[in-house]
Amino acid sequence: MQHKSWIIIGTIYATLVQVCLTLGSISGDHKIVSLPGQPKVNFQQYGGYITIDERQHRALFYYFAEAETEPASKPLVLWLNGGPGCSSIGAGAFCEHGPFRPSGDILVRNDYSWNKEANMLYLESPAGVGFSFSANKSFYDSVNDELTAQDNLEFLQRWFTKFPEYKGRDLFITGESYAGHYVPQLAQLIIKQNVKFNLKGIAIGNPLLEFNIDFNSRAEFYWSHGLISDSTYESFTSICNYSQIRRQSTSRSLTPVCSGVIRQVSREISNSIDTYDVTLDVCLPSILSQAQVLNQLQDTEKIDVCVEDETDKYLNRKDVQQAFHARLVGVSNWTFCSDVIKYEMQNLEVPTIHVLGELAKSGIRVLVYSGDQDSVIPLTGTRTLVNGLAKELGLNTTVPYRAWFGGTQVAGWTQVYGNILSFATIRGAAHEAPFTQPKRSLVLFSSILAGRTMPESPSLTEH
Amino acid sequence: MQHKSWIIIGTIYATLVQVCLTLGSISGDHKIVSLPGQPKVNFQQYGGYITIDERQHRALFYYFAEAETEPASKPLVLWLNGGPGCSSIGAGAFCEHGPFRPSGDILVRNDYSWNKEANMLYLESPAGVGFSFSANKSFYDSVNDELTAQDNLEFLQRWFTKFPEYKGRDLFITGESYAGHYVPQLAQLIIKQNVKFNLKGIAIGNPLLEFNIDFNSRAEFYWSHGLISDSTYESFTSICNYSQIRRQSTSRSLTPVCSGVIRQVSREISNSIDTYDVTLDVCLPSILSQAQVLNQLQDTEKIDVCVEDETDKYLNRKDVQQAFHARLVGVSNWTFCSDVIKYEMQNLEVPTIHVLGELAKSGIRVLVYSGDQDSVIPLTGTRTLVNGLAKELGLNTTVPYRAWFGGTQVAGWTQVYGNILSFATIRGAAHEAPFTQPKRSLVLFSSILAGRTMPESPSLTEH
Q: Domains in chain A, ordered, with CATH?
């Protein structure tokens, strides 16, 4: 019943959206007056659709938070989450480094918001993700990296028409996880097509760069962090080869022996472990949460492990969607990761590590960073890949592997090659690094923008 | 000047102590009325000296905290810290699982004190550690594992004379780090000499069991946790062999190349990392601490990383020493780790893993646990050792490697062999596990005492 009425509403919206898209080209109509429950702030926010393809009725939704202070002199940063198919507004803006985090009915200020350092542009991409859509649903059946990069470029070009004051601004493209594909591919397309953006650098966190090495390093990470036993580690690395597992399970050619090993791995790790952050607690179903609240002995957590649930509730509120100028088109709910897109999964196996090499050769600063508690795309594989790339490019180590500092404590480790290609870990951080280590992530972020190496020694005055 | 007067006072004390030791055999004279700054509690505390050797004027100091409730029906647990040469009262009682933790001038209640589950006996051992002493200082020149085990046994026998009501009580011997030598060796001696104690089990955390495997697993731990680079890891494992480094540096036969690698390892790890807990912040010198306090952005820490400093100050207060019935003999300060003992360092290389096997065969429950953030004696080496021992003994896996729960979250992983030999990790815990994970450590501790396997699924009501 409820479902049916949503379909009707969806259809009406689809029509309305089309009308709206043909309207105004000024940024005024996208201005967000105020998000429900937000504290008062001094910076401007915008949200709305940019049409990518008028004929196909395809439009991408963005959320733009101008810098807290002096936006005119600060760079423009595009942020993309991965998946493929997950929302940059849900994850990036509301769980990681946006100006606010949802807490019950209200939004609370994030003290380590990246818009302290830059004008932050969060994009739901490709169409079908979050509030972005294609009215022609056949688009969803064959989305791939190439289409995503093209649409993202188209978005940027049209967005600059709407916000011309940002056209010549220093531009950084950033993202994480599967954006290890999106980010370098978009940057590559900009260079290839000789688009006149002022692209200065890219930064990608816990990125998928090269399927085999990224996924093969999981077994070692599990074992060295105590998640699986000696004997299972042995089977996992001898009987199964992780890079084959994904391929084999797609083609349904997994051997029964290896299937058994995988079941054993899952059993040992346990369902109550967030493999995206092996040391963080997990968000519990409400009956368990209730027991927690009632219990006096429960530690208070600095990290809200249920922030995804809260974001989901917040972004599904009608008043919130209205404030954002967002609509649900062809779906009944806003979701963290799309359930309508059929992404070309073979694209996962396309290596992007060499694209980073091309970018570095073109003078684009490249930073690859790893939250070090992530077992899904572990630092060990990523570090090996960047190190190997530097060797291939003949780039000398310009900053030797060393600790970097966020304030007075070690915030991670870093190595720089040829003053252009950097690797950094963030200590105690998850797959979504700014979620669990917001302060350290902000230090890292501001270093990238400034083209500085990470702080070398403890600073008395905190960042 | 101050130093001189301490020597005089020390001499007077030495004489007094001797007199005291020949006095009363009742426990009353060791009863602690109240420790300075402590909150009101309902359990009894005792502190004092047990003479080990009248002729040599050698006496061991203990602190005994009876169980919070129903002490008469709860087991007796001896706790030993390692080093060799470090204090069980300073580390075990005041930083880890004692009833109180120092905080400025006062003591605050530890909600996860092990005396909730047992009568806890903390022993400063061998003589020369903490408040324990040998008036005949020549003892300090040749302390070794054999002497330590003998003295610890002598202590227990004489202590039972003083506290006869504990004689037949279920007894557990526990400890950590170098107590991976002390604990099994003491248990072995009890069995060998057929002493009539009711020894039920032993538990050792992050223990030194087998020099080569324990120390060789460091390189891998450093690398997999992002503390050293790919290239340094390669040099570390190919040019140097960690088990040789210790031997070679003792015999001053370290090759210059390997010395270089070690310097590189140290440089990359950084001085600001606590290798006993690679994710924990470090305690900062006062000038930096001051900056921290002044700074609004500083996160509040749940763990007081400066608790060792506070313990040092507390145990060096005269009123505290008086309340404890403790004296400084032959030293001017109480110290965390002894600077008078010359321990036989070759003993580090004596393997104790097979002693665990003997104990298990004698029906003594054996638990080996690892705080999983410790790079000094990493879980990877320890797990391999226990696994190997189980194979040697022909013990089948009775509990397969799986997560265990502290309340509603995964608290670590465990595996049990033959219902007698157990391995467990404590998630997010340091070398001194109960320091960083007090709640999880208490769950583990109560499981050992009860002879239960670790909780298998999340419990709604917290422990």
A: 2-211+310-450 (3.40.50.1820)
